[in-house]
Amino acid sequence: MSYPSGTVVLSARHDSAEPPGGFRKRFLVTGGAGFIASHMIISLVENLSDCLVMNLDKLDYCASLKNLDAISSKPNYKFLQGDICDSHFIKQLFETENIDVVLHFAAQTHVDLSFLDSCKFAYVNIYGTHILLNAAYEAGVEKFIYISTDEVYGGSLDQEFDETSPKQPTNPYASSKAAAESFVLSFWERYKFPVIITRFSNVYGPHQYPEKVIPKFISLLQQNRKCCIHGSGIQTRSFLYASDVVDALLIILKLGKVGDIYNIGTNFEISVTQLAKELIQMIQNTSSDTETEHWMCYVNDRPINDLRYMMKSEKMHSLGWRPKVQWKEGIEKTIQWYKNNFHNWKNAEKALEPFPCQA
Question: How far apart are alpha carbons 7 and 5 in whole angstroms?
Fold first, then answer.
């Protein structure tokens, strides 16, 4: 069901009545019907029964409330449909909901699309973040965590980036995230508003709209279609399983230092071509290189495609966090999930088109 923009909607399967004495803490998670945020919400709802977890999402093309089915009837979960760029709605939300902690995931995130509509990415990712920051600051929120990306550093074949490395984004998506980070940090510098920035490596797992490389390749292969690889396919990416990201954020909520930045990365790295080969072997059960290569095709590359991102995560390690889920375990769980859930999004088929759209 869809609702008019700005409408506050409780989860349809309960009345969200507060327990006697209210909740100990009230979390607002933006973009909660999306990929990583939905995993975060499920963890918070299941493990913090004395806290209210509010999911703010405008239900854009890549969102699905089916991601929240596991907790949708819980009394400490509340869904609100609204847009972070709607300043009047956001102001009213913070004035009425007594929010303690904000986890800001909501964003336009697909690099391919950012080349086609960079203004939309700037509007949502920069302006929307600024609107949210202003409202959160005025409401006296006790912690504001901004979810960013390793792509703000730009690509590098040999340099490992730490949290003090300069930002050198090379695509409109990464540029919008870098600019939003600057707004977030300015609220710390000017007002000592308690913000924290997190920068992730690529994240994979269930719930991800199949426009990103892993769910796209999995979904194509499960439909007996070829993996379409950008350019040469020599680009490498580091991948973190979704639950490891949730664990990192839970630690940051408890131990993170306000005004600080945290890289959340992994040593696991794989090229796009090798990724395709491994998925083909697992899904199509190929036994030879010739059979495997039959399921691969190469398409035009996007305008800029960084070859590699490398981050140091020692600061997170010092807080006690390290990735737990090994690649083989994580990718098998992910493949299994997409067998039954590809149609959780109405327009999932469109996500399987290569960039730029080709026949």
Answer: 6
